[in-house]
Every structure is written in C-alpha cells, then in structure tokens.
User: Which sequence fits this backbone?
C-alpha cells in the first residue's frame, strides 16, 4: 500500500542488504506490480501467492528482488497505516480506496524528500521484463510516465495525471486529491503518516538481519 516513489525509496534502502547488481532491473521491479492498472492484468498476477513475496529468497533476479520489496512494503505498511491513522474520523472513510490512496499520496510526497540529493533511482525506471507478456508499449508508457512525474516538482497535479493514466475514474481521482490536500495540511495526520516508513523499514531490516544470523 504505497505509491511508486515510496516503493523506490524502500527498494533503495534495502539494496545493500540484497546485494543488487543490476539497479535498472531492481528499481523497475520495485514498481512493476502497479503496472497492472494500465496493463489491465489481474492483480493476482502481480501481487498474488505465486509472486516473489520475499526479496531475500535465493535464486531471484534483481528484477524479482525489486518486485519482492514492493510486496513486502504493501503488506507491512498496511498494518502500520491503520494503527497510525486511527484518529481520522469516519466522515472521510466513506470510500476506503480513495481514503487509503490519499494517505499514500501524502506519504509519497514525504518519501520524495529523501531523493532531494539524488533522484537517479526514480529516473532508472524502464521496461526490463514483461513477466506476463504485457504489451511492451503499455509498460513503456507506464515507466515513462513515472519518470516524467518524478523528474518534476512532485505536485498533486502530476499525481492526478498518473492516476488518470492508470484508468482510475476521474471522480475517484478528484476525491483522492481532495483528501490528500486536506491530510497534508493537518499536522496530526501529516505527523502520523511521517512515522510509518521508518517504522516499517526498521522492523523489517531488524527482522531479516536477525533471521539471516540465526
């Protein structure tokens, strides 16, 4: 449960532990699962049981390691977000998907601050693999659109264009952006969201390092 900038951030922060060699493949893998939106393939093919849920599993390609970091963050962050955001009233939860996507947008803009000194991981996104034979032109546009958005000023307007390109209905996108703008200027919500990423990263790294040394 994150936007692509946060997924690339998580992949970047795990890269040393995973001994990545091909960073283009790795970062492209980290955002690959959400290409299901423009490609139209079933979610189970990008997030399901047969996907690489453990980036530390032996024998994975660097693309698959990146893919695995995406699924790890989705799983762990969903729990932390519910805990951190319990204070938000029911009046903004009438559409759970819009609510959670709005939180992801706020989190993503926070994550992008960590790339201020080096945006290169966000600019290495390209078609490396097509695990399910997706149309190459569709995947290329997906990666190109992300590069273009993250090379810019990281505005809500750029997120809006990305979400619309993913074929999300315009009325829902409008609601997501409306909520994200509201959450970003609420100091309590902003602070709660800010705590999610470091908690997930620390707990996951400590757990995996512990397991590796058992």
Assistant:
């Amino acid at each position: 449960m994150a936007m692509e900038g946060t997924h690339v951030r998580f992949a970047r922060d795990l890269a040393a532990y995973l001994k990545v060699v091909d960073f283009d493949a790795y970062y492209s893998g980290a955002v690959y699962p959400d290409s299901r939106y423009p490609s139209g393939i079933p979610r189970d093919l990008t997030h399901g049981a047969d996907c690489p849920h453990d980036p530390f599993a032996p024998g994975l390609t660097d693309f698959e390691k990146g893919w695995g970091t995406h699924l790890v963050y989705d799983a762990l962050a969903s729990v932390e977000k519910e805990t951190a955001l319990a204070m938000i009233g029911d009046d903004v939860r009438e559409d759970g998907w819009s609510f959670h996507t709005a939180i992801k947008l706020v989190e993503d803009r926070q994550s992008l601050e960590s790339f201020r000194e080096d945006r290169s991981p966000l600019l290495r996104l390209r078609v490396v693999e097509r695990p399910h034979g997706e149309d190459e032109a569709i995947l290329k546009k997906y990666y190109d659109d992300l590069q273009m958005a993250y090379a810019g000023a990281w505005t809500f307007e750029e997120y809006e264009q990305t979400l619309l390109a993913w074929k999300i209905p315009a009325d829902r996108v409008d609601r997501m952006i409306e909520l994200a703008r509201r959450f970003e200027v609420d100091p309590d919500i902003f602070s709660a969201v800010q705590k999610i990423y470091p908690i997930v990263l620390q707990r996951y790294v400590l757990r995996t390092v512990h397991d590796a040394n058992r």
